[in-house]
Amino acid sequence: MNTKQKSSSHIFPDPDLPEITDDWIAGADLYNGEKLVRRGRPKLDNPRLLLSLRLPPQTIARWKASGPGWQTRMAEALEKSAPKARAAG
Questions:
Q1: What's the rounded Cα separation, in Å, for the pair 50 and 75?
Q2: pTM of whole model > 0.85?
Q3: What is the SS3 assignment for the chain?
Q4: Contacts with 44 (C-beta within 8 Å, 6 or more apart), sequence order
């Protein structure tokens, strides 16, 4: 007989888990007085910008071959070789 049998295993709720109530959900956010305290990584003062740039494949391959941190090293090299700002006038 090639019929599929239904699984006889049942999933039972864990009796040790707390019941999710409105009070429990309200307590999930952390407040300092009236101010919501943000969690996670702090915002950067000078975040990097996303840029789409077309470069030759061999250039990217050489940077990647230099190992982990290649993007940071590339950004540093670009910063060092950036042209000086022109004086207004």
A1: 12
A2: no
A3: CCCCCCCCCCCCCCCCCCCCCHHHHHCCCCEECCEECCCCCCCCCCCCCCCCCCCCHHHHHHHHHCCCCHHHHHHHHHHHCCCCCCCCC
A4: none
The letter for the amino acid at 28 is A
- Tell me the domain boundaries of the chain: 55-81
Helix axis angle, 57-65 to 70-80, nearest 10°? 110
Q: For residue range 29-71, list pLDDT tens digits in order.
A: 778 888 887 777 888 899 989 999 999 999 999 999 999 999 9
Other beta carbons within 10 angstroms of residue 12's beta carbon come to: 6
